[in-house]
Write a structure and sequence with these properties.
The chain is of the alpha/beta class. The protein is built from 8 helices and 4 strands. It has a 4-stranded parallel sheet. The longest helix has 16 residues, at 22-37.
Length: 160
């Protein structure tokens, strides 16, 4: 059975990155590598929160970013999910913005996603925060998804 992966906003954003700095191009390349060659080995899910974030503001290739997720099923934002967000904010697990990182983590946790895929290494894919996330989710009776970047999920085959 394939792992269930929650696709967070930074994934389509970096897929269509236009920033010329070498590190940004590298992140884009890893994102495209995973999306184009490896995503089919996973069950992808997303949420209206991601689509809403992509619709906000004025940024290049907005429609392409949204279209990248067209075939990805959306998880419903329920009252239970919003209650989890409040717990995360109260425990200072995530920033105060209830429509951002806390909501993505709550959705991935509530719907038992195996992995939350993101390039947000400050608030989400941050090894220093993972134990705190595990503790709070344990108190809530929720599993904690693995918080990973596309680079961590790129599968390489080595010849012996």
């Amino acid at each position: 059975m394939h792992s269930r992966v929650y696709i967070e906003t930074t994934i389509p954003s970096f897929y269509y990155n236009q920033r010329p700095q070498p590190e940004m191009v590298t992140v884009m390349n890893w994102t495209r590598e995973w999306w184009d060659r490896h995503r089919h080995g996973y069950n992808l899910v997303c949420s209206p929160a991601v689509i809403d974030e992509l619709r906000e503001g004025n940024h290049p290739q907005k429609q392409e970013k949204i279209a990248l997720l067209a075939e990805v099923p959306l998880l419903e934002v329920t009252e239970d999910v919003l209650e989890i967000v409040e717990v995360y904010v109260a425990h200072k697990l995530m920033p105060q913005d209830r429509r951002g990182d806390a909501l993505h983590l709550a959705l991935a946790s509530h719907y038992s996603c195996d992995i939350l895929l993101t390039w947000n290494c400050v608030h989400l894919a941050n090894a220093n925060k993972f134990r705190h996330i595990q503790r709070v989710n344990s108190l809530l009776g929720l599993p904690a998804p693995v918080l990973a970047t596309p680079l961590q999920l790129i599968q390489t085959t080595y010849d012996s």
